[in-house]
Amino acid sequence: MALVNEHFLKLPGSYLFSDIAKKINTFKITHPKQDIIRLGIGDVTRPLPPVCIEAMHKAVDEMADESTFRGYGPEQGYDFLIEAILKNDFAPRGVHLSPSEIFINDGAKSDTGNIGELLRWDNSMGITDPVYPVYVDSNIMCGRSGVLGEDGKWSNVTYLPCTEENHFIPELPTHRVDLLYLCYPNNPTGTTLTKTELKKWVDYALDNDTLIIFDAAYEAYIREDDVPHSIYEIKGAKKCAIEIRSFSKTAGFTGLRCGYTVVPKELTAATLTGDRVALNKLWLRRQCTKFNGTSYVTQRAAEAIYTPEGKEQVKANIDYYMQNASTMKEGLEAAGLKVYGGVNAPYLWLKTPDGISSWRFFEQMLYEANVVGTPGVGFGPSGEGFIRLTAFGRHDDCVEAMKRIRKWMA
Ligand code: PLP
């Protein structure tokens, strides 16, 4: 008899976005003529940059010819992409990594969810709250999160609240945690940490022998100078952090699938007997066993975003979304609402008026303004009383959504 991994049974019955989809469907059945503007789900709407399309066409032609055909590639990724990453994403920021410290993946989600395999199930963990749900859910699956309490919190997880009161800057844990997830620029609050603030976390990790998983999926949206693009801009971070990046929101790869994970050679974790083991070696072993690489065609598309034309095209798309973000921020403020984020990130974190719950405001906004957001509480207990709006929509839709919200709030 095959016994099930009972930790899976502890997972919340349905995923946040399927609950939202059900509510939208109910609305559509009862209001078939109303047109809804969706500013909820974090998927992009702009097509891939033309350089990526050209690179893929060329790569497809190579695949059609016996002399240039490629079969299995290196599990870690092709050198041409790794070199482009090192040269463009890190060297200009004074971060020097070796090619074997980069692992090309099929988007950030897989590695974000899988990286915990390197660590024993009984490590303690900390997360900022609210946050991208994959960190907690993937740890629930291996039993690391403990049991769910009535307060909506998992017993083995240390929650680091990010609230209006602390300007969405979490305080260091009052006790040590083994594993810590940080996501900056943050999904869902759209806020960031300055270099000085991030340094506090790196110092905490070094002092406490904590491993940081740094999710920088929204790095391309950073506009302000004092916001670090990589955790390795902070001294000592190579000894305590893994960084995960994605081309999804940078270059519209949500459907194409590519990103990368940085596991520095200096990074180690302890065995029960106190020896130290290099995580880079373990992750390479894991990838060679469970992953056969991202497709050649996709990696050529990713390489193309680092060409001069690619950089311009990527910038144009990001500028488009950030224009949406400022239109939305202005519109919401003009409607008398309080809103955070949207300056270094494509997310706006809207405070519900009069202390209304996230789900109640979500429904009111859907039924009265026909605009869809994401209830903040879906990202963690400290998200209660907030709604996440994304700037990934079409510009006309963002303008129209703001008109509707202003009218509704008047
Ligand atoms: N990390 C964060 C914080 C995200 O918001 C997302 C997607 O929305 C991901 C990772 C996963 O991105 P992908 O798997 O498309 O690279």
Radius of gyration from CA coordinates = 22 Å
Binned strand content: 5-15%
Number of DSSP E strands: 15
Strand order of the largest sheet: 2-8-7-6-5-3-4
Gross morphology is: globular
Distance between the termini: 62 Å
Give the averaged pLDDT, no decimals: 96
Unreliable parts: none
Ligands, deduplicated: pyridoxal-5'-phosphate
Largest sheet: 7 strands, mixed
H and E string: HEHHEHEHEEHEEHEEEHHHEEHEEEH
SS-based class: alpha/beta
Number of helices: 12
Q: What is the helix content?
A: 25-40%
Could you characterize the architecture of this molecule?
It is a single chain. With 410 residues, the protein is of the alpha/beta class. Helix content is 36%, strand content 15%. The protein contains 12 helices and 15 strands. The strands form 4 sheets. A 7-stranded mixed beta sheet has the order 2-8-7-6-5-3-4. It has a 4-stranded antiparallel beta sheet with strand order 11-12-15-14. The longest helix has 27 residues, at 308-334. The protein is globular. The mean pLDDT is 96. Bound molecules: pyridoxal-5'-phosphate. Pyridoxal-5'-phosphate binds next to helix 4. Residues 42, 107-109, 112, 132, 183, 187, 215, 217, 246, 248, 254, 259 line the site of pyridoxal-5'-phosphate.
Which properties best describe this structure?
410 residues; 4-stranded antiparallel β-sheet; binds pyridoxal-5'-phosphate; 12 helices; alpha/beta
How is the secondary structure organized here?
Elements: H1 16-30, E1 37-38, H2 50-63, H3 79-90, E2 102-105, H4 108-114, E3 125-129, H5 134-141, E4 157-161, E5 179-183, H6 195-208, E6 211-215, E7 241-246, H7 248-251, E8 259-262, E9 268-270, E10 276-278, H8 279-290, H9 296-304, H10 308-334, E11 338-341, E12 347-351, H11 358-369, E13 371-372, E14 374-375, E15 386-390, H12 395-409
Parallel strand pairs: 1-13, 3-4, 3-5, 5-6, 6-7
Antiparallel strand pairs: 2-8, 7-8, 9-10, 11-12, 12-15, 14-15
Protein name: LL-diaminopimelate aminotransferase
Family: Belongs to the class-I pyridoxal-phosphate-dependent aminotransferase family. LL-diaminopimelate aminotransferase subfamily.
InterPro entries: Aminotransferase_I/II_large, DapL/ALD1, PyrdxlP-dep_Trfase, PyrdxlP-dep_Trfase_major, PyrdxlP-dep_Trfase_small
